[in-house]
Amino acid sequence: MTDELASWSVQSGTEPPIAALRGVQRVWSQPLADQCFAEILETSSVLDKARMLAVSAKESGAWLHALPAACLGNLLNDDALRISVGLRLGAPLCEAHTCRCSAQVDIYGRHGLSCKYSAGRHSRHSSLNDSIKRALVSCQIPTILEPNGILRDNSVKRPDGMTQIPWKEGKALVWDVTCVDTLCQTYVAGCFDKAGYAAGRAEGLRVDRYTNLEERYFFSPVGFEVYGTFGPAATDLLYEIGKKMRDRTGEKRSSEFLRQRVSIDIQRGNSACVLGTFPHARGLKEVFFVLDIQKQVV
Predict the structure, then answer these.
(1) Any domain includes 179
(2) Can you tell which superkingdom this protein's organism belongs to (predicted)?
(3) Which of 43, 117, 235, 280 has the most CB atoms in a 10 Å sphere around its CB?
(4) Is residue 257 part of a domain?
(5) Residue 269 lies inside a defined structural domain of this protein
């Protein structure tokens, strides 16, 4: 038995667990898994390390635990599921081609996640805001999206949503959602060292952008990364909303369900971004329409 413990200590790089925990399989397997993961990170490229750190974050895999039921809106179609898994594993997603913005897209399809012409960015942004609004409404907190007239400088910029009753400290909640690409040149150097760096930095930029709101409103940036990582402010806000949902509905898993919903919104948006790099082509709808007319005539 002593030899086996010594061998395990060498492989895991740590001391054996205490006697009271030696009957739990996880305390034996987790150090070995951590050691293996650290070795993989050491030999990985900058992009692969940033990706693996991002997908190893707890919240990034929330969509994997969601019940795949169409009635709940949690069901991913075949393309969305394939692309979500492929991005997470770093697997090839498509053939190399030219994006509509004239940039070259490699077999991994990651260009679409940050392409300014990708339609998926807008649909993902709208879905995330809608999920937050629906969660607040379920707490009996009336909410509006894209409120007008709350900035005194009459700027064209406006946050994504606002509660119509006080949220905290007698102030209404105002939030602004952003979802950034973990592997873009702006953030990849920071994400190489720390998971969630891109989301945290994006949240900081949102705070600077809406600094004039702090006097009258409780402003919260809501930052996400395309690989599913949440920013610190987003984590805190979703936890508070989930807590209010649990108190209102009695469902203890409200916070978990909310994180799953947000995570699925991100995956759907990623799929639309990747598919949006392909040129638009006309289908056979006209042919089918003509055939249908002919059947009606006959």
Answers:
(1) yes
(2) Eukaryota
(3) 235
(4) yes
(5) yes
